[in-house]
């Protein structure tokens, strides 16, 4: 019997909260999403922490630089008022965050494509989802049968209880 070595890379990460899988993405498409709004390219790559950090940071800097007000005045043709309302220091910082977001999503897409190709070459299996959620419930001996009966019909729910000798006060 020949043993197959385990794959060093995964094709997907499955959990009860999210599913992250690798597939080929065109880096320019991901960069375009970040060009549309900083952080959207990272959302497309399922890198949620970075995405929400960039989105919130963009909103903060946009507010401090008064970019939307400047755009409004420039669309109305009042260019002097648009120049007066913009804060140049925050505007320069906005450009830096904007460019970083585009670069980060492009670079992340290239890296994820490489990981996908390596996992595909290894023919890595997709691991199965864990059996369920373990729910810890603290209750006394009198409450436990009611809780157990309430949750008995849910097959995906593991049940672990902590019984107290004395009732909760």
Counting DSSP H or I runs of 4 or more residues, the number of helices is: 7
Beta-strand content estimate: 5-15%
By secondary-structure content and strand pairing, the structural class works out as alpha+beta
Q: Name the poorly predicted regions.
A: 154-165
- What order do the helices and strands follow? EEHHHHHHEHE
Largest sheet: 2 strands, antiparallel
Q: Report strand order across the widest sheet.
A: 1-2
Shape, principal axes of CA atoms: flat
Tell me roughly what share of residues is in helical segments: 40-55%
Rg, please?
A: 26 Å
Overall pLDDT metric: 78
Alpha-carbon distance between the two ends: 61 Å
Tally of extended strands? 4
Describe the structure.
With 169 residues, the chain is α+β, with helices and mostly antiparallel strands. The protein is 54% helix and 13% strand. It contains seven helices and four strands; from the N terminus they run E-E-H-H-H-H-H-H-E-H-E. The protein has helices at 27-36, 40-44, 48-65, 67-75, 79-85, 88-122, 144-151; strands at residues 12-14, 19-21, 133-140, 157-164. The strands form two sheets. Strands 1-2 form a two-stranded antiparallel sheet. The chain has a two-stranded parallel ribbon with strand order 3-4. Helix 7 (144-151) links the parallel strand 3 and strand 4. Helix 3 runs antiparallel to helix 6 and helix 4 packs antiparallel against helix 5 (79-85). The relative contact order is 0.16. Residues 154-165 have low confidence and may be disordered.
